[in-house]
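Sample 1 of the test manifest.
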Amino acid sequence: MAENKLSWTELRRALANRAGVSEKEANLFLQAFNAQLIEALKQDKQVKINGLGIFRLQAVAPRKSVNVSSGEEITIEGYNKIAFMPEAGVKELVEKGTVAKQEQTAPAVREDIDPLKKLGAQADEIVDILGELGQMPGDVQGTKDEVPESPENPESPENPENPESPESPEKPENPEEPEKPESPESPENPEEPEMHTSQESTPEKPKYHFMRDTLICVVVLLMLLLVGYFFLRHELSGWINDFVNGQPKTENVQGDNVQSTVQGDNVQGDNVQSTMYEAPSVEEELLLTEEITEGSRLAWIAKKHYGNKVYWPYLYEANKDRITNPSKIAIGTPIRVPKLTAAQRDTTRAEFQALRERAYAATEE
Amino acid sequence: MIASATGLSKKKVEELISTNNAILRETLMSGKAVQLQGLGTLEVKAKKERSIVHPRTGERAVVPSKNQLVFRPVTQIKDELKKI
């Protein structure tokens, strides 16, 4: 067996030790348990194991497909498959990362599970899990505090400026655009995590589902905020670069129009419309920014966002200031991914050829 | 039902189930997979972060990476259940 796998024998042994039965009995039990699980799956289509999760039989409907070699249409028969859904607490623990190794070294705590107090013990376990989960809202709040702050920083200087001198700086437009969709969210945030923690302290089962829902809500909100924050950051950095280079943006003219409509929207609080309206102008420049992670390359990023890795020289071109050698990029380097025009996608153009040669030359450095 | 099949007492079986679950949980938490003979494997898989596009607004977003608990049934069981 591979090292990172708990084999059947090991499981049997661990169970025998922990529960104080012979290995033979443990084996008997595990086999009966598995057989029972399968039987129940066949009969009821769904088996819930408390403290672990739900095994469910899922029907996959028949669907049409095409034979790859002959091009004929064929029908793929419907079938059943097993789906496993971990229980909420277990899922959260797993998602957070698998660092809880200490638990394994301290099995004594769990050994005193009395069969008579089984329910009580389960409640205790849930309390444990909740305790660990309880740390999460803290984190969530921590990051949340950071996130809303940054949108506010650019906001405070820029909002008063806008009505007074709409023409002078190009500054306000860029930061303002992504900030709109966020502002309606930020007021809600501080409340939610608190509600959340108060609920977590009551470890009763019926509330468990409700708590999971709120947790999911909070996580979704956090993710939205983060996304907004990323957009904002890239806009800012993009703008700063432009400013340093002293290149006035063509957007400047459009910007004023955008600005006025945006402000109108803002008054009405109709943020759905404003988001939709703003989205294209943001994307004109930049699709997004991605960080180089371990093992990732410009070619991969190009394939991911442009659909073909031959376009990677554009990424190099757009990030020249940060990259000296495209084949050796430091992990964590943010890569700006510009939007490609149809002309730029034409790989036969001489400009692209030149660009590619330059990029390849850089890899030799 | 397990009790009648194995000849163990009901209490004992209950105890075994909860202990079993605890072991499974702890093992999975520590990043190991668990092999259940004749049934399948429970393992923790790392999901990479991926970028998604909002269908309505065309907005691009990045889903952060996370770990997920997955179950892979043994082929035999898989086939057996397919036909039901």
